[in-house]
Amino acid sequence: MKTIEDLGDVAGLRVLVRSDLNVPIKDETIGDDGRIRASVPTLVKLAKAGAKVIVTAHLGRPKGQPNPEFTLAPVAKRLGELLQPEGVQVRFASDVTGDSAQSAVQDLDEGEVLLLENVRYDAREESKDEDQRDQLADELAALADVFVSDGFGVVHRKQASVYDVARKLPHAAGGLVLAEVDVLRKLTESPERPYVVVLGGAKVSDKLAVIDNLLAKADKLLIGGGMVFTFLKAQGHEVGKSLLEDDQVDTVKGYLETARSKGVEIVLPTDIVVAPEFKADAPATVVAADAIPADQLGLDIGPESGKAFAAEIAGAKTVFWNGPMGVFEMAAFAGGTKAVAQALTEVDGLSVVGGGDSAAAVRQLGFADDAFGHISTGGGASLEYLEGKELPGLAVLEED
């Protein structure tokens, strides 16, 4: 995979960068700017080298049409604030490849950054029709001389700005993509042991292939979040009104048996925080994991389980965590997630927070990014890599 250095001297060149700037925005206010901050080093590197940097990115799901709710204008403003101390100016184009984009590219000076409007405003970006994607890729490529892929959160997508444009221009991987791939290789090819994987989130079905693949690599799997109730059901326990995927119970039974045969320990909570309804002010109580009342639903792993999970993490040399342990957005049900996050900050080895809700959780709970070995910017991409899938956006970077 080529790096920016392999592109040679980029001074004066128009460099198209695919970044991942898909951040939560409400009322034009950015909730978590982690992905924007992660994009900064590559943009600064190119700008300092004298490139004319053109950034394409998406926000949300505008369904192929301009929608003010999904404009990247607030992102451009925040990016400008982050790049200002580096002496780098950020401009914004009000369309993807149209008159505004073309005019802005012509006016762009060396060392400046231009952010194009949400690429998903153009339906061709996500089209299943290769000819449609190819047309948009041609238009993007016409704006630039070389392409740098730095949006790890989208490298599992076969989209015009990720995959097709890379085939039309000299290309390289940005620093963020290289860092993400390096960490994932450590997790899958040569993890230092003991190797503990912590999985949470709502559904087992979202993590089936990951569990299947990691059963051959990890020493222990710690299971929390909404998905744990399908595991408890597979063990014959009642789960009350908790989230349950009945159609996955037999699959989970198979995983439990496979884990036993491979000598991999699957650790489940022994206590659960329950409430009668899904509300922040619902009365919370702690019950044994095998004694959840019929009129209650589980919303977090319990305090004893939090301690047990932390102890398992403390003894590990490599930890990968994806998915919160409970409904961390509600204070009463954030204890399990906080216990796991705190334990990861104390790992004597590699600790990886697998993006998505996990990354949002650690920031919301007050943890600094640098307290962890690595916080991924690509939850879905990370999971697909760990499933052993080929990621189109990475595969194309390896082409000549």
TrEMBL record:
Keywords: ATP-binding, Cytoplasm, Glycolysis, Kinase, Nucleotide-binding, Transferase
GO biological process, one term: glycolytic process
Compartments (UniProt record): Cytoplasm
Oxidoreductase is among the record's keywords: no
GO cellular component, one term: cytosol
A GO molecular-function annotation: ADP binding
UniProt pathway: Carbohydrate degradation; glycolysis; pyruvate from D-glyceraldehyde 3-phosphate: step 2/5
Coiled coil: none
Entry superkingdom: Bacteria
Amino acids binding (2R)-3-phosphoglycerate: 35, 120, 157
Signal peptide: none
Pfam families linked: PGK
InterPro entries cross-referenced by the UniProt entry: Phosphoglycerate_kinase, Phosphoglycerate_kinase_CS, Phosphoglycerate_kinase_N, Phosphoglycerate_kinase_sf
Catalytic activity from the UniProt record: (2R)-3-phosphoglycerate + ATP = (2R)-3-phospho-glyceroyl phosphate + ADP
Residues noted as binding ATP in the record, renumbered to the chain: 207, 298, 329, 355-358
EC assignment: 2.7.2.3
Subunit structure, as described in the record: Monomer.
Family: Belongs to the phosphoglycerate kinase family.
Record protein name field: Phosphoglycerate kinase
Organism: Kribbella turkmenica
Gene name in the database record: pgk
